[in-house]
Amino acid sequence: MMPDLGKYAFEVLSSYGVTILLLAVIVLVSVQRARKVRAALDEIENRRRH
User: pLDDT tens digit string along 6-24?
Assistant: First the structure.
């Protein structure tokens, strides 16, 4: 059950929405960067082996 936010409901809920959106973007960017770095490290390791 959601608490009564009164006249500030829009501001509070939009703040939560923006926060959730930004957290999702940070997670996605971090995952993409981790994949890119992993691929670069794999490439370096492959070059050293051959």
Answer: 999 999 999 999 999 999 9
Q: Could you identify the residue written with the tokens 């936010």?
A: 5
Task: Please tell me the distance from the alpha carbon of residue 48 to that of residue 36, in angstroms, as a whole number.
Answer: 19
DSSP E strands, the chain? none
pTM: 0.73
- Compute the distance between CA of residue 33 and CA of residue 25 in angstroms, rounded to an integer: 12
Would you call 9 helix, strand, or coil by DSSP? helix
| Contact call for residues 5 and 12 (beta carbons, < 8 A) | yes
